[in-house]
């Protein structure tokens, strides 16, 4: 949603507050990241140039190199920003707790719909696959990619673990592996949604994640009863 522009004139003598050096640097850094998202999404990592990003941002080469060492450093900072945004979204949805299986399913659907909106957002998943492609070609970047991907999966694992605890249920897999399965499912649906959007209804991802988690879940009482019946 775009901000409404005020047409009221500022009273005479009232000046716009001056930004501090730190605020100005943060604003310029964000302008560069926004420009990088657009340029990398349109041209890809390897075809994009520092000049393209600087031109799109409206800043100077000096401003870019003041904030980032090189193109890969900027690329990694952009990846960090996207990862943090996804972790925050997961924690907002699942951090408030659930009241039962239906509430848990609703939370999963809410998180999945946010992922669908991200998939449909120009540049978001195009950038993610640029990150994957660059990680596949560059061992040093692959190590950085792996560390950040594990952090996001850890957020998934905590959400899954919290859901199981509130429902009095156990997973048949470790939560870390369950998180890998959810991430893989999300990535696969994203590919299908991007390449053939008509075949992937909005609600499909949420339904699949719910089915996946339910299939890996056993009630604590039921599991105890099954164990007691073993010879």
What would your notes on this structure say?
The chain has 231 residues and is an all-alpha fold. It folds into two domains: 23-68, Homeodomain-like (Arc Repressor Mutant, subunit A), CATH 1.10.10.60; 73-218, Orthogonal Bundle (Tetracycline Repressor, domain 2). Helix content is 72%, strand content 3%. It has ten helices and two strands; from the N terminus they run αααααααβααβα. It has helices spanning 21-43, 50-57, 61-67, 71-94, 101-120, 124-137, 139-166, 175-195, 204-215, 220-229; strands spanning 169-171, 217-219. Strands 1-2 form a two-stranded antiparallel ribbon. Helix 1 packs across helix 4 (71-94) and helix 5 (101-120) crosses helix 8. The radius of gyration is 22 Å and the shape is elongated. The N and C termini lie far apart (62 Å).
Please tag this protein with its features.
Arc Repressor Mutant, subunit A, 10 helices, Tetracycline Repressor, domain 2, mainly alpha, single chain, elongated, 2 domains, disordered C terminus, 231 residues
Short structural summary:
The protein is mostly helical and 231 residues long. Helix content is 72%, strand content 3%.
The whole-number mean of residue pLDDT values reads 81
Name of the CATH superfamily of the largest domain: Tetracycline Repressor, domain 2
Q: Would you give the CATH topology of the largest domain?
A: Tetracycline Repressor, domain 2
CATH architectural name of the largest domain: Orthogonal Bundle
Counting DSSP H or I runs of 4 or more residues, the number of helices is 10
- Report the span from N to C terminus: 62 Å
Q: Which sheet architecture does the biggest sheet show?
A: 2 strands, antiparallel
The backbone outline, from C-alpha atoms, is elongated
User: How many distinct beta strands?
Assistant: 2
Unreliable stretches:
1-8, 220-231
Order of the strands making up the biggest sheet: 1-2
- Radius of gyration, CA atoms, in whole angstroms: 22 Å
User: What order do the SSEs take from the amino end to the carboxyl end, as H and E?
Assistant: HHHHHHHEHHEH
Report the portion of residues in β strands: under 5%
């Amino acid at each position: 949603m775009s901000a409404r522009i005020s047409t009221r004139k500022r009273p005479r003598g009232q000046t716009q507050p001056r930004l501090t050096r730190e605020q100005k640097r943060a604003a310029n850094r964000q302008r560069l990241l926004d420009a990088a998202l657009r340029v990398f999404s349109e041209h890809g990592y390897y075809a994009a140039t520092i000049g393209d990003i600087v031109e799109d941002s409206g800043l100077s080469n000096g401003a870019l190199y003041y904030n980032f060492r090189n193109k890969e450093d900027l690329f990694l900072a952009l990846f960090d920003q996207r990862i943090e945004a996804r972790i925050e979204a997961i924690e907002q949805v699942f951090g408030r707790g659930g009241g039962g299986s239906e509430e848990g399913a609703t939370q999963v659907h809410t998180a999945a719909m946010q992922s669908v909106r991200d998939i449909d957002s120009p540049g978001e998943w195009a950038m993610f696959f640029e990150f994957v492609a660059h990680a596949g070609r560059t061992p040093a970047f692959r190590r950085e990619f792996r560390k950040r991907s594990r952090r996001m999966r850890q957020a998934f694992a905590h959400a899954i673990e919290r859901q199981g605890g509130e429902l009095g249920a156990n997973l048949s897999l470790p939560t870390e592996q369950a998180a890998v399965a959810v991430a893989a499912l999300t990535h696969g649906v994203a590919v299908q949604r991007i390449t053939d959007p008509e075949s992937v209804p909005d609600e499909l991802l949420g339904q699949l994640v719910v089915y996946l988690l339910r299939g890996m879940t056993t009630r604590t009482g039921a599991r105890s009863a099954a164990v007691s019946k073993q010879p």
